[in-house]
Backbone:
Protein backbone atom coordinates (compact mmCIF):
# COMPACT_ATOMS: atom_id res chain seq x y z
CA UNK A 1 0.00 0.00 0.00
CA UNK A 2 1.19 3.50 -0.83
CA UNK A 3 1.49 6.11 1.90
CA UNK A 4 -1.45 8.47 2.17
CA UNK A 5 -0.80 11.93 0.75
CA UNK A 6 -3.83 13.67 2.24
CA UNK A 7 -6.09 13.37 5.28
CA UNK A 8 -9.30 15.19 6.17
CA UNK A 9 -10.99 14.80 9.55
CA UNK A 10 -14.77 15.06 9.75
CA UNK A 11 -17.64 14.34 12.13
CA UNK A 12 -20.78 12.31 11.38
CA UNK A 13 -23.94 14.40 11.48
CA UNK A 14 -27.16 12.85 12.81
CA UNK A 15 -29.08 13.36 9.56
CA UNK A 16 -26.53 11.25 7.65
CA UNK A 17 -27.68 8.12 9.47
CA UNK A 18 -30.50 5.76 8.56
CA UNK A 19 -33.08 4.03 10.76
CA UNK A 20 -30.46 1.52 11.88
CA UNK A 21 -28.50 4.37 13.47
CA UNK A 22 -25.52 4.03 11.14
CA UNK A 23 -24.25 6.21 8.30
CA UNK A 24 -26.24 5.44 5.17
CA UNK A 25 -24.11 3.74 2.51
CA UNK A 26 -24.64 6.56 -0.01
CA UNK A 27 -23.29 9.18 2.39
CA UNK A 28 -19.83 7.62 2.24
CA UNK A 29 -19.58 8.69 -1.40
CA UNK A 30 -20.20 12.28 -0.27
CA UNK A 31 -17.39 11.94 2.28
CA UNK A 32 -15.07 10.56 -0.40
CA UNK A 33 -15.91 13.28 -2.91
CA UNK A 34 -15.54 16.04 -0.35
CA UNK A 35 -12.11 14.65 0.57
CA UNK A 36 -11.03 14.60 -3.10
CA UNK A 37 -12.20 18.18 -3.63
CA UNK A 38 -10.42 19.42 -0.49
CA UNK A 39 -7.28 17.53 -1.54
CA UNK A 40 -7.34 19.17 -4.98
CA UNK A 41 -7.94 22.63 -3.49
CA UNK A 42 -5.01 22.08 -1.12
CA UNK A 43 -2.87 21.51 -4.23
CA UNK A 44 -4.19 24.61 -6.01
CA UNK A 45 -6.53 22.75 -8.37
CA UNK A 46 -9.99 24.28 -8.79
CA UNK A 47 -12.76 22.36 -10.56
CA UNK A 48 -14.56 25.59 -11.43
CA UNK A 49 -11.43 27.14 -12.99
CA UNK A 50 -10.79 23.98 -15.02
CA UNK A 51 -14.44 23.81 -16.13
CA UNK A 52 -14.23 27.41 -17.35
CA UNK A 53 -11.43 26.19 -19.64
CA UNK A 54 -13.59 23.31 -20.94
CA UNK A 55 -11.74 20.75 -18.79
CA UNK A 56 -13.67 18.37 -16.55
CA UNK A 57 -12.52 15.56 -14.28
CA UNK A 58 -15.26 12.96 -14.06
CA UNK A 59 -15.71 9.79 -12.03
CA UNK A 60 -15.69 6.71 -14.27
CA UNK A 61 -15.95 3.95 -11.63
CA UNK A 62 -16.43 3.59 -7.89
CA UNK A 63 -15.60 0.53 -5.79
CA UNK A 64 -16.38 0.59 -2.08
CA UNK A 65 -15.88 -2.14 0.49
CA UNK A 66 -17.83 -1.41 3.68
CA UNK A 67 -15.97 -2.76 6.71
CA UNK A 68 -17.39 -1.10 9.85
CA UNK A 69 -20.17 1.42 10.36
CA UNK A 70 -19.89 4.98 11.53
CA UNK A 71 -22.52 6.32 13.93
CA UNK A 72 -23.79 9.79 14.90
CA UNK A 73 -21.11 12.10 16.27
CA UNK A 74 -18.25 9.73 15.37
CA UNK A 75 -15.10 11.51 14.31
CA UNK A 76 -13.29 10.00 11.35
CA UNK A 77 -10.29 10.48 9.10
CA UNK A 78 -10.74 10.25 5.34
CA UNK A 79 -7.36 9.48 3.76
CA UNK A 80 -6.19 9.15 0.16
CA UNK A 81 -3.37 8.71 -2.29
CA UNK A 82 -3.46 8.94 -6.10
CA UNK A 83 -1.94 6.89 -8.90
CA UNK A 84 -2.08 7.34 -12.67
CA UNK A 85 -3.08 4.17 -14.50
CA UNK A 86 -3.25 4.70 -18.26
CA UNK A 87 -5.66 7.57 -18.89
CA UNK A 88 -7.20 7.20 -15.41
CA UNK A 89 -6.36 8.98 -12.20
CA UNK A 90 -7.13 6.48 -9.46
CA UNK A 91 -7.89 7.73 -5.97
CA UNK A 92 -7.37 5.10 -3.28
CA UNK A 93 -9.38 6.26 -0.30
CA UNK A 94 -9.93 4.82 3.15
CA UNK A 95 -12.02 6.06 6.05
CA UNK A 96 -10.99 5.33 9.65
CA UNK A 97 -13.06 5.95 12.77
CA UNK A 98 -11.26 8.02 15.39
CA UNK A 99 -9.75 7.68 17.89
CA UNK A 100 -9.44 3.88 17.56
CA UNK A 101 -8.45 3.99 13.84
CA UNK A 102 -10.94 1.22 12.98
CA UNK A 103 -11.18 0.84 9.18
CA UNK A 104 -14.71 1.68 8.04
CA UNK A 105 -14.41 1.67 4.25
CA UNK A 106 -11.88 1.03 1.49
CA UNK A 107 -12.59 2.70 -1.83
CA UNK A 108 -11.09 2.97 -5.27
CA UNK A 109 -12.32 5.87 -7.40
CA UNK A 110 -11.32 5.96 -11.07
CA UNK A 111 -11.47 9.37 -12.76
CA UNK A 112 -10.76 10.58 -16.26
CA UNK A 113 -10.20 14.06 -17.65
CA UNK A 114 -12.03 15.48 -20.66
CA UNK A 115 -11.69 18.68 -22.65
CA UNK A 116 -14.87 19.81 -24.36
CA UNK A 117 -16.23 16.29 -23.87
CA UNK A 118 -13.23 14.50 -25.40
CA UNK A 119 -11.05 12.16 -23.34
CA UNK A 120 -7.56 13.46 -22.59
CA UNK A 121 -4.61 11.10 -22.01
CA UNK A 122 -3.66 13.21 -19.00
CA UNK A 123 -3.30 16.74 -17.73
CA UNK A 124 -0.11 18.22 -16.23
CA UNK A 125 -1.97 19.72 -13.25
CA UNK A 126 -3.32 16.25 -12.39
CA UNK A 127 -0.06 14.46 -13.22
CA UNK A 128 1.58 16.60 -10.50
CA UNK A 129 -0.77 15.06 -7.91
CA UNK A 130 0.58 11.55 -8.38
Residues:
Amino acid sequence: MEPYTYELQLKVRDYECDLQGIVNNSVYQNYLEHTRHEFLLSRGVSFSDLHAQGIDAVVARVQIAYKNSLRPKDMFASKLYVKKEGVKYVFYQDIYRLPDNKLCIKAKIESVVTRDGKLLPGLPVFDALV
User: Anything to note?
Assistant: Residues 48 and 56 are 9 Å apart (CA to CA). The mean pLDDT is 95. The first helix runs from residue 25 to 42. The two ends are 14 Å apart (CA to CA).
